Here is the input.
Amino acid sequence: MTDRMMLFIDYQNVYRGARECFHPEADAPSIAGQISPILLGEHIVATSPFDRELAGVHIYRGRPDATRDPRGTQLVHGKSRRGRATHGQP
Here is the structure.
């Protein structure tokens, strides 16, 4: 029987951890450290020794500044694509 897996991500902590691990230089561009939550979930399932399917990905992040990050603002307000669920924290 296939196990269903849900991935829950605290995006800001993952982003900071990826920057510290892979881009320690202070002048790294802001895009350095960003990840694709869907691809991460698919990778975890594909490399698991168990029979699993990705049932969903939930992303938790702070509320972005609408003037600096309109795309992030859309995601927090539920205007997401491909079955993603994003939960903003006040």
In short: The mean pLDDT is 84.
